[in-house]
């Protein structure tokens, strides 16, 4: 009997061992991961901001954002769609596949998307949220959702708007009300970043001061001219006369391009006339400083034809409407 059992074991063993050997390793748990890198464009749309300035960058109509996505999964990749909140899912944006690799059952695709702010007529309002929805799709058609929300991934930014000032007066350099107009990043008495400040003094870092030639105290001439403070250095503030339509521009890109088109740039404007419109660029002489683009319109020129030798007024001035786009730019 024992010999029979041993024989049965010898006959069955190969089949039992084969059966054990045919068992497959357990399938790996489904795993997917999505990462993104964002680069914000310069005004020319050809270059991008350095690291460390992303949180301080303001996006305006006409700007370009470049996104780099990497989708890695062991479930295969069928598609990768991105759409915004203006045209919806039916009209996905153009996403370019830049690289793909597969190893040990894991596929990794790299994608690139260039998104132009305000590429649709219905999205022209400043301070408007822009939402990009991301839908990486597995081979079986399922969409990889944000693990924290259970919804499609979203990338959100707010479109910025310009600072606008009307009826700004720049007084006679030689008069008792002489002033400077300065764009300050931050200051104790004015925490609004990059706001226009009316300085009741001749600030050497001024964005605008009245430019007057040397004269005698009894000279009642008023020249409708302007320049920047003496410490701004050559080219830190530049002006270019542009068409009147420029006062309605809401894209810093337009202003930057117009300064090249209608140049040359000037650091001093002489003999300004009512109705003139000038595009301008301002940068402060600090390492890594921001650059501002804007437009100003000469609204009125007032000359009281008096001097300190007369009744002491001499409160001649130029009046401007000024609009510019704050934020770190190049």
UniProtKB/TrEMBL annotation:
This protein's UniProt keywords: Signal
- Signal peptide location: 1-18
Protein name (record): DUF5007 domain-containing protein
Keyword Signal found: yes
- Origin species, per record, is Nibribacter koreensis
Cross-referenced PROSITE patterns: PROKAR_LIPOPROTEIN
């Amino acid at each position: 009997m024992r010999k029979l059992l041993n024989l049965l074991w010898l006959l069955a063993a190969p089949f039992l061992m084969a059966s054990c050997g045919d068992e497959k390793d357990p399938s790996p748990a489904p795993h997917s991961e999505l990462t993104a890198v964002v680069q914000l464009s310069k005004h020319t749309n050809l270059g991008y901001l350095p690291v460390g300035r992303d949180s301080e960058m303001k996006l305006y109509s006409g700007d370009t954002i470049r996104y780099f996505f990497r989708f890695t999964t062991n479930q295969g990749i069928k598609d990768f769609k991105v759409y915004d909140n203006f045209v919806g899912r039916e009209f996905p944006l153009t996403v370019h596949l830049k690289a793909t690799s597969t190893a040990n059952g894991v596929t990794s695709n790299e994608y690139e998307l260039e998104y132009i702010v305000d590429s649709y007529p219905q999205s022209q309002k400043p301070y408007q949220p822009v939402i990009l929805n991301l839908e990486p799709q597995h081979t079986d058609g399922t969409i990889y959702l944000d693990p924290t929300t259970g919804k499609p991934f979203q990338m959100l930014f707010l479109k910025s708007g310009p600072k606008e000032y009307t009826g700004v007066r720049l007084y006679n350099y030689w008069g008792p009300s002489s002033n400077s107009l300065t764009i300050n990043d931050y200051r104790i008495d004015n925490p609004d970043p990059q706001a226009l400040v009316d300085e009741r003094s001749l600030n050497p870092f001024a964005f605008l001061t009245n430019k007057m030639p040397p004269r005698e105290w009894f000279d009642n001439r008023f020249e409708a001219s302007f320049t920047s403070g003496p410490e701004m250095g050559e080219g830190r503030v530049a002006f270019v006369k542009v068409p009147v339509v420029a006062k309605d521009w809401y894209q810093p890109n337009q202003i930057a391009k117009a300064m090249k088109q209608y140049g040359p740039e000037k650091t001093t404007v002489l003999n300004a006339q009512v109705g003139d419109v000038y595009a301008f660029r301002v940068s402060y002489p600090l390492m890594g400083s921001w650059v501002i683009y804007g437009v100003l319109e000469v609204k009125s020129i007032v000359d009281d034809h008096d001097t300190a030798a007369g009744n002491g007024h001499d409160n001649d001035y130029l009046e401007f409407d000024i609009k510019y786009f704050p934020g770190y730019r190049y």
